[in-house]
């Protein structure tokens, strides 16, 4: 009888131990489950954030809403706060070449460089030789002049009828060539052109093909 009672006590003790082990394992599993749920919520938050960034980048790539701000979505507005749209900078540039020789040039005669090889913005008129400013800002003008041998000439760059810059070429026994560059601030409607001065030779004077007039917008003026 005592032996049976002892065995029952031992079995009861073993059973209690197993129950305790199961309880501990259950608590461990519950703790792991709670951590997994927290990690899942964190990962979901990251996925949502990445998806939002992708939507913003897609909206930026299309740029369709910039032309119609009234149609902006929340994503468009978020993108505007992060990276506002800047329209392309205005452009103006030309390069014109003289294709025929100039003979018996008069005083204060406009020199039209008649072949516009580059004319971005169409502000240079190769027929009249006049550049008319459409975009206010700082401009760079360059003149390369080649003349016949044993000749001399002085050309001037005019802004709105006022002499701003000049170049003189004189040579003996061979073709002569000189270049000059000018920086000029222009407003909309200002005109720039090249004229002869009173100091020049007669007869065949300016050599064709190697005489150029060019200009480009360096910095547009910021309008407030």
UniProtKB/TrEMBL annotation:
* InterPro entries given in the database record: C1q_dom, Collagen/C1q_domain, Tumour_necrosis_fac-like_dom
SUPFAM superfamilies membership: TNF-like (SSF49842)
Q: Where in or outside the cell is it found?
A: Secreted
Q: Where is it found, in Gene Ontology cellular component terms?
A: collagen trimer
**Entries under PROSITE patterns matching the protein:** C1Q (PS50871)
Q: Where are the transmembrane segments?
A: none
> What does the UniProt keyword field contain?
Coiled coil, Collagen, Secreted
Indicate the segments annotated as coiled coil, or none if absent: 33-60
Per UniProt, residues of the C1q domain are: 87-224
Protein origin, superkingdom: Eukaryota
Q: Does the keyword Cell inner membrane apply?
A: no
Identify this protein by name.
Answer: Collagen alpha-1(X) chain
State the species of origin.
Mizuhopecten yessoensis (Japanese scallop)
């Amino acid at each position: 009888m005592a032996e049976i009672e002892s065995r029952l006590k031992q079995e009861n003790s073993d059973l209690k131990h197993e129950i305790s082990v199961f309880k501990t394992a259950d608590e461990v599993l519950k703790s792991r489950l709670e951590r997994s749920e927290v990690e899942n919520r964190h990962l979901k938050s990251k996925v949502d954030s990445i998806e939002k960034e992708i939507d913003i980048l897609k909206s930026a790539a299309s740029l369709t809403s910039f032309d119609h701000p009234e149609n902006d979505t929340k994503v468009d507005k978020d993108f505007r706060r992060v990276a506002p749209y800047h329209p392309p900078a205005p452009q103006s540039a030309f390069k014109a070449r003289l294709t025929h020789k100039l003979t018996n040039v008069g005083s204060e005669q406009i020199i039209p460089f008649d072949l516009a090889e580059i004319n971005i913005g169409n502000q240079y008129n190769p027929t009249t030789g006049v550049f008319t400013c459409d975009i206010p800002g700082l401009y760079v003008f360059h003149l390369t002049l080649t003349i016949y041998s044993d000749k001399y000439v002085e050309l001037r760059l005019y802004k709105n009828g006022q002499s701003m810059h000049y170049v003189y070429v004189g040579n003996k026994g061979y073709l002569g060539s000189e270049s000059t560059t000018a920086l000029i601030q222009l407003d909309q409607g200002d005109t720039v052109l090249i004229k002869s001065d009173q100091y020049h030779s007669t007869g065949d004077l300016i050599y064709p093909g190697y005489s150029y007039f060019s200009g480009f917008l360096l910095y547009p003026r910021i309008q407030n």
